[in-house]
Amino acid sequence: MKAKETLLFFVLIILALAVISAVFPYKGIAFAGRRLFFPKPEEIFFQGESRSIQEKMEAMERSLQMRIYEDSITKAKVMARNDSLLFFASYFADNPARIHFPAEDSHYLDTFFYQLQNRRADELIHILHYGDSQIESDRITGLLRQKLQERFGGSGPGLLPLVQPIPSLTMGQSATENIARYIISGNLINRANHNRYGIMGQVAAVDGSSYVTIGSRRNKENYDSVRTFSKIRLFVGRSSEGFEAELKTSNNSYLRKIEGETSRMRTLTWNLPAPISKFSIRFGGRAELTAIALDGNRGIAVDNIPLRGSSGTFFTSIDPSSIAPAMRELNVKLILMEFGGNTVPSIKKQKNLDDYKSGMMRQIAFLQKIHPQAKIILIGPADMSTRVNGRLQSYPFLKETIQILKEAALESGVAFWNMYEVMGGENSMVDWVKEKPALAASDYIHFTPKGANRIAELFYESLMVCYDFYEFTNRNTETEE
Fold first, then answer.
1. Going by CATH, does the domain composed of 55-123+331-481 fall within 1.10.60?
2. Which distant-in-sequence residues (6+ apart) come within 8 Å of 349 by Cβ?
3. Number of C-alpha atoms within 13 angstroms, CB side, residue 465?
4. Helix, strand, coil fractions of the chain, as percent rounded to 5
5. What distance in Å separates the CA atoms of residue 343 and residue 333, rounded to the nearest whole number?
6. What are the beta bridge partners of residue 416?
7. Is the distance from CB of 327 to CB of 235 less than 8 angstroms?
8. CB of 445 within 8 A of CB of 428?
9. CA–CA dist 94, 111 (Å, integer)
10. Which of 181, 237, 310, 481 could join 163 via S-S bond, C-beta 3.0 to 4.6 A?
11. Residue among 363, 319, 322 at smallest CA distance from 339
């Protein structure tokens, strides 16, 4: 076949495909019990920006990283101050990774930052990170913890459940079979006959002799600060008279007892002479154990609290007396609530949106009431893909769900972070899955560990922009005075 004939053949084929594409029904054609689809030309030839997701995320991260230099020369100081003001104004106005504040109050987190800066030398501050399966295995939380502990001090993984059915990237756990685990919400739900679930939304019931063993494990993500801890606190709800817990390390054992039967929460504490990475606890008697905290003696702790399949509307079902004392004991100053993804598939109409908004506002109000000392940031869901007319695209009502979550946060007087917008918005999940190496899993819903780290990095950088703004404002206020 001659070159001209070959060229003509390919041109005719392309024209024929274009005609088929133009006349083929958008909703497809039913055939043999299936539905056939044909892509439109614009879906083939116009794929948007050519930059990879990694390049886009790196560019976004650079947009959050500005170093504020101040020379000793007055003119240079003024120039640096003006440049900084422009940077902060741009961040709060239109950066996709910005934290949205109620009433556009960019000082909303100032009390949290003040507590970080002015804490006592021996003070430990906790950040609770609640979420669904997107944060399971210490994903997102792990890198956020590492970065915050590098900057502000601290060690250890923070809160853990006594029984952990989901393997973690950072901690290994085992427990004897006679410890019953109950959880309030999600796909792994196993309800107790009471509502004393505590700070993690789950409780372990021990009765008689039983053991748990907990130890840090080496991880590919190099979360070094999590590996050792020197302060161990066991949160005990109702317990029988003489309940005891004996902590055993490689060198020593330490016995703690609760005298008398009690229905209120107690904390058993072990302040160890040196950091450790592994231990076991023997329990004797009957008790409800809501959590165990593994920390350093100072700095900051970030707690990973995932509830697979949860919509985030469970807080109001927990007995406040089982959670509020633990928040005070842990000195909680910031609460992250990362939910919404499990609700999106069930949203079919406006009433569903309205109900979810009011439900989340009730959860926020509950936390504000039982622990007003903490600031709250509600984090919306990631982009999620499903097949619509044969094509992978963002879930119907996803954008609307994110919008009502933002409204719920701001109207409740708390902050909001839009993970969907950070990813790139509509249909961005497909690109995250296609990225090499993949940043999201083939279910088009969950991040891979690498993708989770990108999200954690961007949230951390955004939080630190707000911290830098707090410092910048204080420094310049003092200068003006």
1. no
2. none
3. 27
4. 40, 25, 35
5. 28
6. 100, 378
7. no
8. no
9. 24
10. 181
11. 363
Cβ neighbourhood burial of 61 (10 Å; 0-12, 13-18, 19+): middle
Phi-psi region of 59 (alpha: psi -120 to 50; beta: other; left: phi over 0): alpha
* Residue pointed to by tokens 């970030």: 302
Spatial distance between the Cα atoms of 17 and 218, rounded to a whole number of angstroms: 54
Virtual torsion, Cα 280, 283, 288, 291, nearest 10 deg = -10
CA distance 382 to 248: 42
Cα–Cα–Cα angle for 102, 84, 61, nearest 5°? Answer: 70
Per residue of the chain (481 residues), give pLDDT as tens. 566 666 666 666 666 666 665 655 544 555 444 444 445 554 444 444 446 888 888 888 888 875 444 443 344 444 456 778 888 998 999 999 999 999 999 999 999 999 999 998 889 999 999 999 999 999 999 999 999 999 999 999 999 999 998 888 899 999 999 999 999 987 766 788 999 999 999 999 999 999 999 999 877 767 888 899 999 999 999 999 889 999 999 989 999 998 876 778 899 999 999 999 999 999 999 999 999 999 999 999 999 999 999 999 999 999 999 999 999 999 999 999 999 999 999 999 999 999 999 999 999 999 999 999 999 999 999 999 999 888 899 999 999 999 999 999 999 999 999 999 999 999 999 999 999 999 999 999 999 999 999 999 999 999 999 999 999 998 876 555 4
Could you give the residue ranges of the DSSP H alpha helices within 102-202? 110-118, 141-152
- Any idea where the domains of the chain sit in the sequence? 55-123+331-481
N-term to C-term CA, the chain: 86
Task: Give pTM, 2 decimals.
Answer: 0.87
Q: Rounded to whole angstroms, how far apart are CA atoms 341 and 345?
A: 8
